[in-house]
Amino acid sequence: MAGSSASRSDTDLVERLRALRPLIRSHALRAEQRRRVTGEVVEALTDAGIHRMNVPRHYGGYQTSLRTQVDALSEVSAACGSAGFMALIQAGCAFISALFPDEAQDEIFTGPGIRVGGTLVPGSKAVAVDGGYVVSGKSPFATGCQDADWHLLTALADSGDGPPEMLWLAIPMADLKVLDDWDVSGLAGSGSNTVVAQDVHVPARRVLPIGPLLAGTFPSQRNSADPFYRMPVLLLFCAWTAANALGLARAALAEFGESIHRRGITYTFYERQHEAPVTHLQFAEASMKISSAELIAADFVALIESKAAVGEPYTTQERARIRAQCGYLVRMCKEAADLIGSASGASSLHREAPVQRIVRDLNALSLHSFVNPTANLELYGRVLSGLDAGTPFL
């Protein structure tokens, strides 16, 4: 069981995580080579309190403001994209866990530093039995599963005459097997392996129907009236993902700003790269792309928080716009990193150079189905054109 010795306050959470950046960065290459975040970094993040951000205060959690969560996750991502991605998935799954029936939360949140993973890929089948379900199947892209205490497994259950019902089932990781199959070119250290359930019995209290959740209904009695937990979870994932992209892009920009004073441009008379006009254009354009991405993130984070504070519903157009904004800012961060990568010279291709890893991580992030810029722009364009969004995942 994961523990945490962190302060019970999140007032200095961002500063605690910023102080960890040298440690996290020093382990980034090892994480990529091992295909999972190192144990030292996992424990350091837990002790700093990052996993408490969405845990109910009833269990010693913080219920951290979304703006602070974005800042916190950005700090981790700036040091290591894989560690940041793992942190955002586990932060999100802790939030989802707080929507489960209260009895299930009592089982899950046995400590405020509990790490919960999960996916929204329905690769398993749940069969109704007396008192719950028996679930079997594979769940790919289970980020950080080897360092999680619980997993929110997505499964389809027969609903009779209608389409299958999609469920989240909270299962202890001890009841699941992990296939060591995460071998990829981007976010390679996130440990997003496949988890396997084989005839696992899940009691009804540990089941969360996804359809009603997307419509704003969830079974937790304790948290149902709390504005914090009325924020739509899919819009929150837009904010958490934005943090990963922003942290990576900022790190690339900072790395570039340092390296141009150390190196020249080969086969030219520029002994220092920072003296070349082309560098000035590249630096400025990358900086403007990242600044624009920051403004987009600030815009929709403020909208999510303000609506939740007053209990005002989110329109379909607002939800679609936030999806589009998330994809668009990831595209801008990727473009900025690509520009920096191409301007950093062949020496940046070395595995220990952070820039090449950042470029690959942002490429991987932009391929995520929920984040993909093109798909999200099409979704928003459909809504703007007066058509159905074409997806319930808003």
Notes on the structure:
The chain is of the alpha+beta class. It folds into three domains: 96 residues, Acyl-CoA dehydrogenase/oxidase, N-terminal domain (Butyryl-Coa Dehydrogenase, subunit A, domain 1), CATH 1.10.540; 93 residues, Butyryl-CoA Dehydrogenase, subunit A, domain 2 (Beta Barrel), CATH 2.40.110; 154 residues, Butyryl-CoA Dehydrogenase, subunit A, domain 3 (Up-down Bundle). Helices cover 48% and strands 13% of the residues. The chain has twelve helices and eight strands. Strands 1, 2, 3, 4, 5, 6, 7 and 8 form an eight-stranded mixed β-sheet that branches. The longest helix has 34 residues. The protein starts with 12 loop residues before the first helix and ends in a 10-residue tail after the last helix. The model has no long low-confidence stretch (mean pLDDT 94).
Brief summary of the model shown:
The protein has 394 residues and is an alpha+beta fold.
The H-level CATH homologous superfamily of the largest domain, spelled out, is Butyryl-CoA Dehydrogenase, subunit A, domain 3
Q: Which outline best applies?
A: globular
CATH topology of the largest domain: Butyryl-CoA Dehydrogenase, subunit A, domain 3
Strand content: 5-15%
Number of strands: 8
Radius of gyration: 21 Å
> What is the CATH class of the largest domain?
Mainly Alpha
Main pleated-sheet profile? 8 strands, mixed
What's the architecture of the largest domain, going by CATH?
Up-down Bundle
Structural class: alpha+beta
What portion of residues is helical?
Answer: 40-55%
pLDDT < 50 stretches? none
Q: For the residues shown, what is the average pLDDT?
A: 94
Secondary-structure element order, N to C = HHHHHHEEEEEEEEHHHHHH
**Into how many domains do the coordinates divide?**
3
Query: With helices defined by DSSP (H or I, 4 residues minimum), what is the helix count?
Result: 12
What is the distance, rounded to the nearest whole angstrom, between the alpha carbons of the first and last residues?
Answer: 33 Å
